[in-house]
Amino acid sequence: MSVVLALVTDAFGGRGGIAQYNRDFLSALASCGHQVTAISRYAPDEVQLPAGIVQRSSHAGRIAYSVAAFGEAIFHRPDIVFCGHIFMAPLAWMVARVAAAKLVIQTHGIDAWSRPSRLVRWTCEQAAIILSVSRFTRARVLDWAAIPPERVLVIPNTVSDCFKPGNGAALRHEWKLRDKKVLLTVGRMCASERYKGQDRVINLLPRIINAGLDVVYVIAGKGDDLPRLERLVHEVGVSDRVRFVGSLPHEKLIEAYRMADLFVMPSTGEGFGIAYLEAMACGTPALGLAASGARDALLEGALGFITDDATLGRSIVEILKNPDVDRGELSRKVQQAFGVDQYRRCVSNAIAILEQTA
Questions:
Q1: Which of 70, 158, 306, 330 could bridge to 343 as Cys pair (CB 3.0-4.6 Å)?
Q2: How far apart are CA 298 and CA 169, in angstroms?
Q3: Statement: the pTM of the whole predicted model exceeds 0.90
Q4: Where are the beta strands (DSSP E) in 43-101?
Q5: What are the pLDDT digits (tens) for 272-285?
Q6: What are the Cα distances from residue 177, in Å, to 38, 211, 244, 316?
């Protein structure tokens, strides 16, 4: 089995979708018997590491981080260097050269969709394989990288089996949502990530209410775009219909998914969109736009609902008025397509392909 050095922005003890992907990927490697050492730039939360994984103390500064990475490469001679973010590709390439290791570069969403700098592009082209979270991201990488298509592989996100159907009545009672139709979005509210689409849903609320639905829109997450969204809620006149609940701890997040009637995230910039999986694994139907990597998460409409901007409001109304969803069956299908066992098979196949590269 291989010795793997993972250069990541964040993983264990980190937050957000990329941190979760890194945790899942490195855990899958360790479960297959590989020895994994991760160097993280950010790790604000304490966490117990899985067996087979070591994570060095975080190094937020570039120089300290680079020194730690080269030191690990020199003294432990990894077989594989995993680069968890495209912007770290030049450093990862140099570290891989020092260790005479094979380089694996991970690509996610908008960070990899535009043509990067010449240096980043060149170092990506030197990778043994590039991993992408969706077909959309893979296609964008192939648009700018001179690399054989067979060396750019799709490994989608996975979802833990702790996300499963359950009774959300207690949270509905706590948040005073009994007898309401509840829309839910989970995602950061950052000015740089306005593509998430919370504002689209807010603007549609009057139309949804006029269709005869007693609806409340719950928005979970935080970020510097919150004041703009709060102003928009006031301008649209739906202050009594929108709840900003902030970032939720893990158990409460699961409860939130369970109590919602529809998870909606009309995003135009998802590399994949793990929140769709989490909601559907909890048995809650999910709606997204026919854009970017969301189509993979929703299995082109086989798992979730897909619409476009022009029909978003009508789609929400139709789903809420016709809630014909077997929540247990939806959860089973999500786990079958994106569960941990399937994910580990994908990772194992990618490593087998990597081992065949020169």
A1: 158
A2: 26
A3: yes
A4: 53-56, 80-83
A5: 999 999 999 999 99
A6: 43, 19, 13, 18
